[in-house]
Amino acid sequence: MKKSSVIILILLISLYLVAVVSAQNETTIEDAAKKCIENKINDRCDELTLEELVFTSLSIGQCKAELQDKSKDDECWPSASCKIRDTALAVIALNHVGGSTRGAEDWLLDREKISADLDWYLEIDASNSTQCKISSGSTSKTITINEDKTISGNPGSCFSLAYQNYWLKIDSDCLKKNITLSCSKDFVSTLLYKKSQGDVWYLSPETESASAGGTTEHSIQPYCLSTSSKCDYEGSLWAVLALQKTEHNINKFLPYLIALAEDNEKLFPETFLYQFSESETYLQEIINQQETEGVWDLDSGKNKYYDTALALLSLPDSEAESLAKIWLDENQDNKGCWNNNVRDTGFLLWAGWPAEPVSHDGTSEDYCGDFGYYCASRAECDEASGNILENFYCTGSKICCDALPVSKTCDEQGGIICPSGQTCEASVISASDTDECCPSACVTETYECQEYGYNCRTACSDNEEETSLGCAEGKICCKEKEGGASYLWLWLLIILIVLVALAIIFRNRIRLWLFKLRREGRGASQITRRPPFPPAGVPAGLRRMLPSPMPRAREKTKTEKELEETLNKLREIGK
Q1: Is 177 strand, coil or helix?
Q2: DSSP tag of 476
Q3: 193-217 pLDDT, tens digit each
């Protein structure tokens, strides 16, 4: 084989190997983790704890029946002592694998309570002095908004003048009542809230306005979830996530979760609040709490694997996610496990490599094809004289039919059979008379030789040379002759392959180094903790925010030191 062909072959092989190894790296972590869980449960789902059942269902889709068996009447978990967090986790898992969760959703919603941890205020603003009628329930009172924006008059038993008479504080006994306002001149109104004894104010996202004689209406959203008289913050976080995933309106729970976040930092509320609000403030706080090597460790009482999984729930396709996966790759044991247990491995697998949830319309848990029936369009079922089975579900827009749809020929389906030398530009469809029915146009086949810009001929001309690239049967691939390939190119290719191989071997350390360079180049990330909705309208002097988190100083890790040694070796090879 000629030298130029050897060089091309070496280059193609090296590129192929890089692609293969890179593809393997993307799937190895996930596949090994799945294998770990499968080996540990080993068809013994009935022996797993509730958390293990939840994260097994979420990660590999197994143990659904055993998870349902641990419920009390399919409403709450565990059966002996129903808890908010456990029930919420079960709802998330069962919803993911296509199980029925309606009873459990209702049970969670029945646990809602008014939070005693928040103080609520009403603000009314107008450009000119105006009289306003304020109603709460069946009680109505008249108040005055003065030129200096203060409020005067008797607002009734549900309200009291607060903060130099700028606002009306809402009595706790009236939090369930809607508030209606009507003023003699144009005005705006909104709700504010803060944690009792706290000094950070939050503004409702809905500021209402009305012209003279018009009305505004406000509904207070002061709810949490609990099985006792006191709000359960961790349970509420997971329950609201479960209710969000089952398509409930969760707005009434957000003020409590937002305002009490600072008192529950070990529970990592930011990762939940980002999913609820998509506020960049929460996303930045999640990233700021990531350790240098890529892990999260919030001293939550769980462990760093659990905390890292929580963070990954909110970090799809991000630099922080990539850095975390480098750490997970390096800390996965030879059995594919993290922390050598099912819970942490399953949680990380679900958070970092989530599988597509089972999706159907909720009318049944039974898939049509599993019971010997057929998923088809309504027209196909009618044509086959079949009956539609409402108690079974199919994916997409198809229905479950008890008769096999009639198979049509390619021509009856409007398809064609591509002639020799052409291929179908779309996927072939099933037909009774052929396995190669093309539903769209046929296109001329192109061969490997032509893809590289060469020519397929019966014989090469004098100024051409034969290559090993593929052509149609009976033809060879010809390319123009080149000057003799220098051995320098061959050595450069060999060095390139060596460098690529080293880069693959030490890919995690190099990626870690690159991430650190980018972060250092941008400087330390500083943010101010504030509510997702800026409290415009709060009187001057009353806006107080929490201080920015202090940057963390850390010594170089073992991984970083090894990375520097590796890069030094690469530099020596390149000299």
Answers
A1: coil
A2: E
A3: 999 988 889 988 788 999 999 999 9
